[in-house]
Design brief:
- The chain is an all-alpha fold and about 160 residues long.
- It has one domain.
- The protein is built from two helices and no strands.
- Helix 1 runs antiparallel to helix 2.
- It starts with a helix and ends in a 12-residue tail after the last helix.
- The mean pLDDT is about 90.
């Protein structure tokens, strides 16, 4: 029975090592999944920004049409201050459209950065799990060897013959 102790210690170390390895694998899978979700969010942010930019462009065109119609209804011609108003309206509309696209791109980049961090974190956790698994195995083997040597008892040197 005492000789079973080192074997049990090695088996326990193997189970702990397997658990550490599996934990690292699970962390990597979680990181990969989170990265995938973040990349999907990045694409959604770009898509939303594109739709908002298109809506802004449409609103600008409608606003400019309303200005032209009001000016034409009052009997004005397309010159002078009305052209300045139209140009300013077009410039403001374009600036708002570009700002919406920029905001969407910044949100998308944030999601992409999060994805990269998730991937790196998962890889680091996987490596840590593998290192812990190796450490558990080595510690278990070392403990088993120590237990085995204690069970054998101290080695005594062979008796030296007496000179008398």
């Amino acid at each position: 029975m005492p000789m079973a102790i080192p074997i049990i210690m090695v088996a326990a170390a193997a189970v702990a090592a397997y658990g550490a390895h599996q934990q690292g694998q699970a962390a990597k899978k979680a990181g990969d999944f989170n990265a995938k979700v973040s990349l999907q969010n990045a694409e959604a942010a770009r898509s939303q920004a594109s739709m908002r930019a298109s809506q802004q462009e449409r609103e600008t065109m409608l606003r400019m049409g309303a200005i032209r119609a009001a000016h034409g209804a009052s009997g004005g011609t397309a010159d002078g201050s009305v052209l300045d108003v139209l140009a300013d309206t077009a410039a403001q509309g374009e600036m708002q459209r570009q700002n919406l696209v920029y905001q969407g791109e910044m949100a998308a980049r944030g999601y992409q950065n999060t994805a990269q961090l998730d991937i790196f974190g998962g890889q680091a956790e996987q490596k840590a799990g593998n290192l812990k698994a190796g450490s558990e195995l080595l510690g278990g083997v070392a403990g088993a060897m120590g237990a085995r040597s204690k069970l054998k008892g101290p080695s005594s040197p062979p008796p030296t013959p007496s000179p008398y």
